[in-house]
Amino acid sequence: MNNSPINILLIEDSPDDVFFIKRELEKLDNTSDTVHISRAKQLKKILESKHSFDIVLTDYNLGSWTGLNVLEEVLFFDPLLPVILVSGRVGEERAVEVIRRGARDYVSKDDLKRLPEVIYREVRNAKSERRELEMAEKLQESEARFEQVFRVSPDPMVITDPEAQYIRDVNKAFCDLTGYSAHDLVGNKLESLDRWTRLEKVLEARQIVALGGTLKNRELSLNDKEGGQHTILWSAEGRSESGSAGVTAAVLWLGKDITTTLQMEKNLRDSERLRSLGTLSGGIAHDFNNILMVMMGYTEMAMAKVEEPRISRYLNEVYQAVQRARELIKQILAFSRGDEGVRREIRPAAVVKEVLKLIRPSIPSYITIRERISAKKYIYGDPSHVHQIVMNLCTNSYHAMKDTPGTLTVSLSDLSSQEGDYVVLEVVDTGKGIDEETLDRIFEPFYTTKAVGEGTGLGLSVVHGLVESYGGSIHVKSREGEGTRVIIYLPAKTAHGRGDENETEAEDNPIGRGHILIVDDEEEVANILSLMAGDLGYSPKVCLSSEAALKEFIRAAEEGKPYDGVVTDLTMPGMTGRQLAEKIKILSPNTPVLLCSGYYESSSEEEVYSYIDDYLSKPIEKKVFAQKITTYIGEKKGDRK
Amino acid sequence: MSKRVLVIDDDDYVRNLYREALEEQNFAVETAENGKVGVKKYLSFTPDTVILDVLMPDQEGVETIRELRKLDAAAKVIAVSGGGKIEAKNYLDMMRHFGAVETFEKPVSMEQLIASIEDHS
User: Fold this and answer.
1) Three-class secondary structure of residue A208 per DSSP
2) What b/e string do you get for A295-324 counting C-beta neighbours within 10 Å, with b at 16 or more?
3) If A208 and its partner were Cys, which of A48, A53, A213, A300 is the partner (CB 3.0–4.6 Å)?
4) Which residues pair with A615 in a beta bridge?
5) Greatest Cα-to-Cα distance within chain B, rounded to the nearest angstrom
6) Mean pLDDT lowest among A127-141, A295-309, A354-368
7) What is the DSSP letter of A620?
């Protein structure tokens, strides 16, 4: 039975009846608490007070109120609070009316002994009603939550029947991915969707779910509406025999699209691979070329001596292999270094012509080469980069036309558009073309369709990297069996050759002021540096040895006209540039010293830095000279105003 | 009298190759494993031609060619480079700048190299 106390509200205006009712209520097992009010007017107040009631007992006739009014008031306050009409003779009709309006029972005052039983029953019923209502609310809430998750989840989701046959619902993410609307899909069979990349895998997964099994991160890939493949991991739980009965009226398929993650992981792996390749290749290229050199040299010597044709042929194979290794090293170096090259204003037309002249002999006569070069514009770049771009593209085209006669057309033209001026390079072949899947990957490093030993898979990545570093763009159009067209846009220099930002910056450099000492044992070099410094606004003085320079430096300081900076060569007979720099720094630590060198070892860089402010690599470009010298020598930008 | 060739290269195997290939063609050959030794041998051996590797750890080829040319403005230096931190071509540009009569990227065919020595001596 019910063990918790029952709180009763009794509304009764007859003291006698109160007495009799209370006597019955005392028979309840519990230490029940009864609050009695005699006037219905007090009802609202007591309901809203801190008392909470499990049940209300009311008389019918209550002065100006009736039991109906009480009922209405109580149910308004709490629709689940049970109300029992406890009344004298009110007549069948009225009793029925009150019950019809929501009272739980009618107990006649002649039959009060029924009361405890009625109270127990109704309190119990009310409790279970409340529980049900709460559960219903919770369910509704959880459904709403699920609905929200289902709707807004970025992961694709599908709901099927327990047999995993028919699609019952799909979420927005799934629709976005497949390009179908829910309307298109709902009601159809799961396998009737034409986006699955491997139908047999879907059928297999369906089977598992239908048999009550569980899928966890099972890969079922989908094509999106553009045909791009998405790798999706699906999880779903089938209805198991022992599972909560009746709950699984449907199966939720949760997808996780990991395409981007996979791609990112791959990119990361590639870039790590390239970085280590770069570090490695710089280090081994020199040694490797020495090894190849030895192999090549002795092979050559052997070939010159051998008379047996078979051995001669074998040696020739070795020789060819060495050539291939050499090319491979070159490509890897070019790719991993990603070096800036020496960029200047160049006319790509000249370079392209040169490359075509160079490759003509290596291309079989059944391939016609058409040259359409009309570009007059300049670009800012390194000729060897342009060389590499054209060479790699032509090599690819030639390979694509290897087996059949065809035409290779190389055009170079100027293009002026709203976005700017470009030099457009087009390399078109009539070869076998590139299929779609390959087209997606052609710029990936190490991706190659050529046989092992024929290509490194670096050629187009190098081209791509170079074009990007020039701020240009590359487009590849191809159709299988018809040929391929590669179009490259390289930003052109504007009419006066002042389009480049770096150069503008150089022009804007503060003009130098002050006395500088230029030290080089080669008079010609010293004079050129002196001229450059003079152009920048400095007053230069040339010394042809460190010893002379040191004397001059001390003399000027003693006369109160100290030098504002020193530019010295590294290698000189007698005192070297480094020794001179050291002495000058001891005499005058704040005087900037720039060291010119044909080449310096990076290992000694740090040691040297303590008394050298910066380096200039020979041959010295005027632009670099201007930038460095004005940075260190003369008035600082901030002091000028 | 046979022509004299001084080979300066830090790689033992490469030096041996040069020596064998050149001696076979009746050149008199001396070798040095670095620039410093090379400069000394230049003075004692007085070669007609020098084959100089550009990137050597002890004394950079660039420093070496400048010293050789200072000692003898007419020194005929053929520069060879296997590349390294920068492209071989860039080292070789520098070498031409400092007076190399011809430059080659490693690996170079001995036939070509010998032809070059014949041309310049």
Assistant:
1) helix
2) bbbbbbbebeeeeeeeeeeebeeebeebee
3) A213
4) A595
5) 41
6) A354-368
7) P
Min distance B108 CA to chain A CA atoms (Å) = 6
Contact A296, A317 (CB under 8 A): no
Interchain contact, B98 vs A291, CB within 8 Å: no
Give the nearest chain B residue to A572 (CA atoms): B67
Is A286's CB within 8 Å of B110's CB?
no
Distance from CA of A151 to the nearest CA of B (A): 56
pLDDT for res A422: 92
Q: Give the DSSP per-residue string, A102-123.
A: T--EEEEGGGGGGHHHHHHHHH
Residue B22, pLDDT above cutoff 90: yes
Query: CA-CA distance, A325 to B5, in Å (whole number)?
Result: 29
Q: How far apart are CA A119 and CA A107, in angstroms?
A: 10
Per-residue pLDDT band for A610 (boundaries 50, 70, 90) equals low
pLDDT at B114 over 60: yes
pLDDT digits (tens, 9 = 90+) for A137-175: 999 998 888 888 888 899 999 999 988 889 999 999 999
Which residues of chain A does B109 touch, with a Cβ-Cβ cutoff of 8 Å?
A: 296-297, 300
CA atoms within 13 Å, Cβ hemisphere of A544: 4
For residues A530-542, average pLDDT? 84
Instruction: Tell if the CB–CB gap between B63 and A571 is shorter than 8 Å.
Output: yes
Q: Which residues of A touch B82 (CB under 8 A)?
A: 285-290, 293
Judged by a CB distance cut-off of 8 A, whether residue A205 touches chain B is no
Residue by residue, DSSP assigns chain B as ---EEEEE-S-HHHHHHHHHHHHHTT-EEEEESSHHHHHHHHHHH--SEEEEES--SSS-HHHHHHHHHHH-TT--EEEEE---SS-HHHHHHHHHHTT-SEEEESS--HHHHHHHHHHH-
Distance from CA of A289 to the nearest CA of B (A): 5
- Indicate the pairing of strand A483-491 with strand A214-219: unpaired
Predicted TM-score (pTM) of the model is 0.39
Cβ-defined contacts of B66-73 (< 8 Å, 24+): B66/A571, B66/A598, B66/B98, B67/A571, B67/B35, B67/B39, B68/B38, B68/B39, B68/B42, B69/B98, B69/B99, B70/A573, B71/B39, B71/B42, B71/B43, B72/B42
Range with the poorest average pLDDT among A341-355, A600-614, B102-116: A600-614
Q: Check B87 against A601: CB less than 8 A apart.
A: no
Task: Give me the interface pTM, i.e. the ipTM.
Answer: 0.74
pLDDT of residue A641: 32
Dist. CA B16–CA B23, nearest whole Å: 10
pLDDT of residue A554: 86
Distance CA A198, CA A317 (A): 46
* A242 has a pLDDT exceeding 60: no
pLDDT score for A157: 94
**Per-residue pLDDT tens over the stretch A218-233:** 999 998 888 888 999 9
